[in-house]
Amino acid sequence: MASREDDFTAFAEAASSRLLNTAYLLCGDWHTAEDLTQTALAKVFASWHRIRDRDAVHAYARRTLLNTYFVDCRRTRRGEVLLGDVPDPGEPVTPAAAPELRLALIDALATLPPKARVIVVLRYWEDMSIEQVAAQVGCSPGNVKSQSARALAQLRLLLGDTLADTGARERSGHPTTAGPDAKEADDGRDIAPHAV
Fold this sequence. Notes:
The chain is mainly alpha-helical. About 65% of the residues lie in helices and about 0% in strands. Residues about 170-195 have low confidence and may be disordered.
């Protein structure tokens, strides 16, 4: 029979990278994400003997990580995060620009309030349903819908249409254009200039 420490060690090895990625998306800093993950795992270990349903241990760990993040936000009261430059919506997005887009998205996520950021990360990064997010965060499904709508509107405002245009073109198979007034070669449709 495996000991309590062995069971927890196996769980921690399996779950730590996913928890770390989620923590990074929440706080935007790898060092803080490591601290949050380590603290959450320590709290899970302290409660390990009380967790009866081993199938729910991942949900328990994620919820512990979220609570740890909320406590950290209340404790530190982070101020406003200033972004260097918001990407120009008329700029073409190429695969080489993908890391810059990812960094711009991380910076934009940092401007959201903690609860809205948690909802966006769980809903769109962890790919959870509205009901699952509501259960994890401890609010109603309507609250999840309204907070995610507001957060996405704020992200769109900060990032412009760059992300939406890139994703739509990649899904449809159309190439990324050279500029806002360019035509798509394969079907001749005009691309309207972006409103600034």
